[in-house]
Amino acid sequence: MLRLLFLPLWATRIVFGASTNVQSSESVAPSSVSPSIITSAGSPLATSIQDPASLVNLFIGTRNGGHTFPGATLPHGMVKVGMDTNSPGNHAGYDGDPQFNATGFSQLHDDGTGGAVPLSLFKLWAFKSCGQFDTFEECPTSIASRNAPRKNLSTGLPDDFAEPGYFSSNLSTGIRVELTATRRAALHKYTFPAGTRNPRMVVDITNDGQQSSTDPIMELDSETGKVAGGASFAASFGPDRFRAFSCVDFQGDGFDLGQPKEFGAWLGNFPVKQSTNINQLYFGFRDELGALLTFTPNGNGTTSILARVGVSFISPDQACANAEEEIPDFNLDRVRSSARAQWNELLGRIQVKTDNVDPEIVSLLYSSAYRTHISPADYTGENPKWNSTEPYYDSFYCNWDTYRTLYSWMALHDPDDFARIIRGMINIQQHEGWLPECRGATAQHFIQGGSNGDPILGEFFVKFHEHAAALNVSSSALYTALLADAEKQPPNWDLQGRQVNIWKKLGYIPSDVWEVGGTNTKQVSRTLEYAFDDFAISQVAKILGKKQDGAKYSKRAGNFINVWNPNTTVPGNDSIVGMMQPRFADGTFNFTDPRHCSVNDPTQATCFLNAANKDGFYEGSPIVYTQYVLQDTAKLIQLQGGNQKFIDRLNFIFEQNYFDSTDEPSQQIPFMYHYANRPGLSTQRSRQVIAQFYNTSTNGLPGNDGAMGSFVAFYLAGLYPLPATRQFLLSSPYFPQISFFNPIFGCED
């Protein structure tokens, strides 16, 4: 197998040469070219990091709105088992702020999302005692009543621990909780304080992150204590609902647990002893319910109860089968060790020399790289909508967030998972008509930008077209999926596809055209992203030898110019001339204040999803979006008055705080100095961004994680990608040397 080696910017083995812009015929400055890739049959580093999992800090961004998931999962695992807290910012279940209590340990979460709280399904909870007399009926089973504080360390932080594939917590009740995971199942261990007479376990069927459940089912086996059930839940960022199911069984750790000595279903705060089915309860439309079991404690020592939990989107029986197949032995140490080994193999493909490097930077790199492999999630075998032999991936949160950097990072070291994700996306297009955009728990979610699945497929094909067959990706199916996005208008372009009819007619999305197939919003940002989507398609067409299509989509990629108004200026600064602006169908320009949706906006607008917003932009100001012409920056520089004025505009963006580290449209801006032949300024700005906004603390992210993992990893590696091309902008890495091991090269058999 070969290794891909990126040397530092100053290394003599890097090859520089003039390049042409990927879209324009105009020449680009030499500093914007790709590095040559040096290959070596062996390891390029004299020593290697053998246990990169030990460098991962899972608690980065668990406060301050980062919404990161610190629980246990595998690379792209469906199950993400972790603690839930009663924080208003518990989008990934957990909150690193010790003032918030634990409410349960759920099997499904997502990482780094905004919107409503996704998933947080099928919580377990343990009681060492209940009420004054420690009776079954006194147990406070509802989510609001049962919550308990965590123990705190001397640092003031919660007494929680996490490593890739494992999580533990010590609760104020004296109960210790340990969690680990396989792809579709979780294993919990609850260790009760000495002297616990009635160790009890709660299985919560209905409490998701939004309290949205309807149509619950549940059955309890009184002899074994097995609980199986499920419900219907609301999507977190869209109009759909989905059904999910769980199966829980128990075993004593080192002793025979036996059958439960007490059992029953519960509704709210009312456990009903001896009941085994929710039809024995008076439950309503959105009630909280589940099962409560009391076990006999270990008579010869500490009582530790293992809970094995399978999850499925098909049925309770499938959930049980998943648990039995993946965790047949209830062996927490084995499952934990296996998970860590999988993470070490994957993260170990990235190697750095750490001489004279701050350990926090090393941890930040591997922690960021770790989070790039949490989503999308491998739901293969768990698609309730159609049968297929192809992989099925979900948790696309959202392509608008991830297409800019995540898949380019994955392409460097993980082509196999990348290929499986691409196959899954193609299969969704074959059954639903368009590529997935934003998707969670099998439900379509709202699109944020364009049809951003297109540059993801383009990224894969440009990098791996010579290996597509070996990776089981059909080139023809991939291209057909791209053409569906580019040419066929969907019934609702807010959920899939594009508003292509007016796009093809006018070459932009006008401000004053209402069609029944979706909202009339984000017209300018969609125009810019549709143009980049078509650029990605043009690159695939050219590789396939489809010259007419290549020319057609290259021309459409130039449609960004249709929303360029050369006369718009920033209020109070006449030196910044020309801006992307909304436009009417008759060709005349509308006006949006360039400061709109920035910290300098006098109206303090947010530009989030809202059908009433007619400003034309999504989560970014016109000043930021005006720089989003990645496919033809040479033309953008020309429009903005040449290199020096382009640099002045970039400086203005930073100096006046228009750069937004919390949102993806700003991500490429620090590196754009390359295009004006000032790569040193790119290095300065990118390092300024890392120093100002990112660290390894619980407050170490400036906003929702989204694609911040790959974004930060690229910055630390001294690289920035241009999706759907083989180009990287080179900067100075934080390490004397960094290498990526890519299994596909030299391994076509």
TrEMBL record:
Signal peptide from the UniProt entry: 1-17
Lipid metabolism found in the keyword field: no
Domain Glycosyl hydrolase family stretches: 318-740
Keyword set, alphabetical order: Signal
Residue span, Glycosyl hydrolase family 92 N-terminal domain: 55-312
Name assigned to this protein: Glycoside hydrolase family 92 protein
Taxonomic source organism: Somion occarium
